[in-house]
Amino acid sequence: MFMTTKKILITGGSGALGSNLQKLIKCFAPNSKELDITDLQKCIKAVKAYDPDIVIHCAAWTDVAGAETHQQQCWKVNVIGTENLVKAAGGRRFVYISTEYVFDGEKGNYTENDIPHPVNFYSLTKLIGEAIVNQYPKTLTIRTAFKKDGPWPYAKAFTDQWMSADFASERAPDIVKASLMTSLTGIIHISGKRKTIYDLARKASPSVGKMSINDLTVRLPRDTSLDSSLWKKISKSKIVKK
User: Fold this and answer.
1) Element (H, E) at 19
2) Do 204 and 195 contact (CB within 8 A), yes or no?
3) Closest CA to 15 of 126, 164, 169, 190
4) Across the chain, what does the average pLDDT equal?
5) Could you please report the per-residue DSSP string of 203-242?
6) Could you say which DSSP state residue 102 is in?
7) What pLDDT is attached to residue 138?
8) pTM for this predicted structure
9) Which of 38, 58, 117, 208 has the largest count of CB atoms under 10 Å?
10) What is the rounded distance in angstroms from the CA atom of residue 131 to the CA atom of residue 183?
11) Which candidate in 122, 136, 154, 198 is catalytic?
12) Going from the N-terminus, what domains does the chain have, and what CATH number goes with each?
């Protein structure tokens, strides 16, 4: 458990990441029913009621394939919702959880200085969310990769897609630490070692089957592994202040 005197508001409290962050830090973490981020007035009301020092924005539409057929809904959550929240934050520290999918996957091992190039609609909305957040002061965008803890939810996993993903519980501690580093702003990559999704899936479900990203109709990036060396350097030298 991280000890801090700062008041924390986490969106997406029932999600894979949000539920793990709550185990590590005292916070207010409403789910999507308790806080509809697509409604600006509700966002303003929530921020006014809790008066947080830090907002960690985890809530998102994450169904990549579904985003192609439900673009309006995805846009409303990932773009409008993000804009509503950062406006409602009113200059408070704002941490935006983004994704390695902002890259096209043509080379892998992406650094913070590499140029994003989304290849599907979900990725586009997350990149636009980054652009919105980066216009405001005291904001941090964390590009990361994680999957929900527990048994692999699908019968198969990709053997030809490389990422830096781990399970949400493994990623949560570093995300809390970065969020509490109030002088850390801009964009940072926080992720694990390069591996295939199949390799990760086998950790939870050893009998999971194999499949290719070419089996899907939606385009997926082939290698979105992240270079997290900057974060490793910062995290070793920085002390989290209460």
Assistant:
1) helix 16-21
2) no
3) 169
4) 96
5) HH-TT-EEE-GGGSSS---SB--B--HHHHHHHHH-----
6) G
7) 96
8) 0.96
9) 58
10) 20
11) 122
12) 8-237 (3.40.50.720)
pLDDT the model gives residue 174: 97
DSSP summary character for residue 80: I
Which residues of the chain are under the pLDDT cut of 70?
A: 238-242
Per the CB < 8 A criterion, the answer to whether 47 and 9 are in contact is yes
In terms of Cα–Cα distance, which of 20, 197, 160, 152 is closest to 97?
20
- What is the token pair recorded at 215? 């089996």
Tens of pLDDT, residue by residue over 65-105, are 999 999 999 999 999 999 999 999 999 999 999 999 999 99
Q: Which residues pair with 93 in a beta bridge?
A: 54
Ordered DSSP codes for 146-184: EE-SSS-SSSEEESS-EE--EEHHHHHHHHHHHHH-TT-
SS3 139: strand
CA 20/CA 126 separation, integer angstroms? 21
Encoded amino acid at 88, one letter: A
Do the bridges between strand 8-11 and strand 54-57 make them parallel or antiparallel, or are there none, so unpaired?
parallel
CB within 8 A of 204, min separation 6: which ones?
149, 150, 151, 152, 167
Q: Which of 159, 32, 44 is nearest to 92 (CA)?
A: 44
50 is catalytic: no
Look at the alpha carbons of 134, 136, 142, 148 in this order and tell me if their dihedral is positive or negative.
Answer: negative
